[in-house]
Amino acid sequence: GSPITACRVSGKFAFIELRTPQEAALALNLNNIPFMGAQLRVGRPSKWNGPPDNHGNWEDILAKYMSGELQVGNTAPGQGAAAMA
What are the Cα distances from residue 25, in Å, to 3, 21, 67? Predict the structure, then answer.
């Protein structure tokens, strides 16, 4: 199913909640992804006080994929997170 459990749109912002902390951390890799002629900003809430996340952005992920460093495909549950870290 969908990893998104809730979504609220307010003006030009959208706030989503994800099923797990791991899925939320992986979603941060989508920062700067092109969408409808603009680059989306994906980040934690401004009041986030949890541990820092080790993540990249869309350009980092795309560069790793294009170089062959990142393999995407049918992976077992839990392996996708390791492949993108």
Answer: 12, 6, 23
